[in-house]
Amino acid sequence: MSSALESSEEEEEYVSSEEEEKKKKRKRGGKAGAALKKVKVKVGADGAVAAAGVGAGGKVVVEDGKGKGKELWRAGVKSDLAPGEEVFIRLPKARGDGGVRYEEGVVHPNTLMFLGDLRENNDREWLKVHDADYRQSKKDWDAFVDKMTERIIEVDDTIPELPPKDLTFRIYRDVRFSSDPTPYKTHFSAAWSRTGRKGPYAAYYLQIKPGGSFLGGGLWSPEAAPLAALRRLIDKKAQKLKDVLMAADMRKEFLGGIAKDEGKAVKAFCGMNKENALKTRPKVSEVFH
After folding, report:
1. pTM of the entire structure?
2. CA gyration radius for the chain?
3. What is the pLDDT of residues 60-71, one digit of tens each?
């Protein structure tokens, strides 16, 4: 199963709930997706932002009329503003549907477009400005996951009916031990198991992004004891796994339409999972089948 099945420890909530955001917009007197924000900045001689009129740490802050606000740009960002100049910024609305209706069970083209844009602009300032597109895309993804849950339950009665919040992974990346500093994942993903996206059970996993969507299943990073038990089972009953790989639908949908050849099926399956393959053979038995 791909490393894209993220642990819940990597994730955090992105912004306040939709209802809270609506209340804020009503207080400001603005309309959804078109709220006016007042920004007071101070810039240096080179045109870069030097400090903020509100807030600490040299952040440029969007004021809410009460001397409070949230960061929109970092200090050092180039600007053509004069020192202390106040400007009004109208945040962009979410994209129009382009004549394609939003439907449950179908990922809208706008959602993939948003993920593509995020890949090219993977920073906090851009996402804050394009919050309306993010919310619209997340809502579309949640609706798709909700419909997908219904379909999975039809064929697997061990999967419970859970809300999308218990199935979908959040968009934040854990960058603490990574050489990649980008703050966001550039895909949407979800997992279905007996306990949703969390827990020790095998799961169905779905990930979407432009040019890289895929469906998978299995255990991700299991503990030592269940991993050893799984390896012993595969070693003793390898033919059962081979029979699954040889199924016509499996070869057609997942193994590139290969011929009905057991050796080729195993090779294709191993090739799909080489990203996470072990360099040393595990000590299960002396001979592997």
Report:
1. 0.67
2. 24
3. 444 444 444 444
Q: Specify the amino acid at residue 86.
A: E
> Which of 87, 75, 85 lies closest to 38 in space, CA to CA?
87
Q: Quick one: tokens of 5?
A: 């099945």
**For residues 63 and 4, what is the distance between their CA atoms, to the nearest angstrom?**
37
Please tell me the predicted confidence (pLDDT) of residue 7. Answer: 42
Query: Which two structure tokens, joined as six digits, stand for 109?
Result: 């083209």
Instruction: Say which amino acid occupies 49.
Output: V
Q: Please check the confidence at residue 58 and state whether its pLDDT lies above 50.
A: no
What three-state secondary structure class fits 46?
coil
Residue 248 CB-density burial (10 A; 0-12 exposed, 13-18 middle, 19+ buried): exposed
Per residue in 180-204, pLDDT (tens digit) is 999 999 999 999 999 999 988 999 9
Residue appearing with tokens 């000590």:
283
% of the chain with per-residue pLDDT over 70: 66
CA-based nearest residue to 140, from 106, 178, 98, 167: 106
CB contact at 8 A, 220 and 203 = yes
In whole angstroms, what is the distance from residue 83 CA to residue 46 CA?
11
The alpha carbon dihedral of 226, 227, 230, 235 has a sign of: negative
Q: Give the integer Cα–Cα distance in Å for 86 and 76.
A: 18
* Residue 7, C-beta contacts closer than 8 angstroms, at least 6 positions apart: 221
Strand partners, 188: 208
Contact of 171 with 132, CB cutoff 8 Å: no
Determine how β-strand 203-208 pairs with β-strand 60-63. unpaired
